[in-house]
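Example complex used in Figure S2.
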Amino acid sequence: MRPQSIVLPLALLGAVLALAAWAILARGHLRDGRPSSGADSTDAALREHVRRLDERLSRMETLLGALPAVNAPAASANSAPAETAHLPTEDEARQQAARIQSGLEGVFATDARANDAGKWEARIGQAFDDPEVAAVAQPSTRSAQCRTRECRITAQFPPGAEGSEWANRVAMSLADGFSSSRVVWDELPTGESAVTLYIFKKGTENILTEQGL
Amino acid sequence: MNAIRPLALALTLACAAALPVSNAQAGLVHAGFGSGVCKASNGANTNLFFGLYNVKNVSNTTQYVTCNTEFIRDRLVNLLPGAGYKLSMIVGSTSAVPQTVTCIASVGQGGGIASQSTKVVTTVAGAPGRLDFFPVELKAYSDTSSLSVYCGLKPATNIGLFLAQQPEVNVLVP
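Predicted assembly (387 residues):
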């Protein structure tokens, strides 16, 4: 039942209750003025009626309270209600990340190595040596491989090292040739952290959509 | 911080009308960045000025800033996995010489994975630039995503007026 449809019955019920209360008071006044011998039984019936109406009102108030607020916007046909959202657990998030990385690796593996791969790898090497990149915490190992549509950069950082600054500055240094990327971070059993950047050459980003990545 | 967030949200909503970003079908969104959510990427840094809704480089060298926000989930905001986000930023400069600002927008997911995009804009005094990131670039794999922006600000440049939205919540990328 929609909240709006309850408002009218409630209003009617309120009017009935008000009328009943007025009737009781009016009879009381009349009785005070002109005592009537048959009034007691009528009063009892009226009180019982009012009591039942009271109970109905309470039940309706309870039902109304359980509904969403009247002023809350109705969910549009295009939007999923927040109540139905499923927040993934940590395990589910890891599984999802693993599935996505598997997809990214699959795309990389099937992308042929182009003739100009060496040129792109050299360009990434320049980014590694960019003074703005060299100014932050450095990885213990790093490498890059390029394919026709993308390049993959991997790096490992010593335990406790903050690698995100390095990864960001490398991506920033390569902004002239690459735009979209997917980044995967792993914590290794050794305490090291590893990052893999899948960076896509400008104009090839549609591969991500095509592969659902 | 708690006082700032509603203000940032209010500004963002106000900016939604000012920026030429269509949100007619928006499953709307959401949040703004301001001084409460941006910080120098290398810790304390007096070379950056943090206004309520913008960040300005007041030094003679490139400065890096990072802004983080989380999506607020309620009846107005539906973060559907598979869809992406649109993020628009205004970039300004007080320099007479053209300066570049490079920003990386990143949607982080659980499990250590993020989708991100890098954009560059050149700006000069009196001619602000704009950075637009599109849903295909900022894909959200799950409904627990967070949005962050990392920018390299050349001298005398600033960023501000963020607007993030998920404009096509009914279009899910398979």
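Confidence is low (pLDDT under 50) at residues 28-36, 68-84 of chain A. Chain A is about 50% helix and 15% strand.
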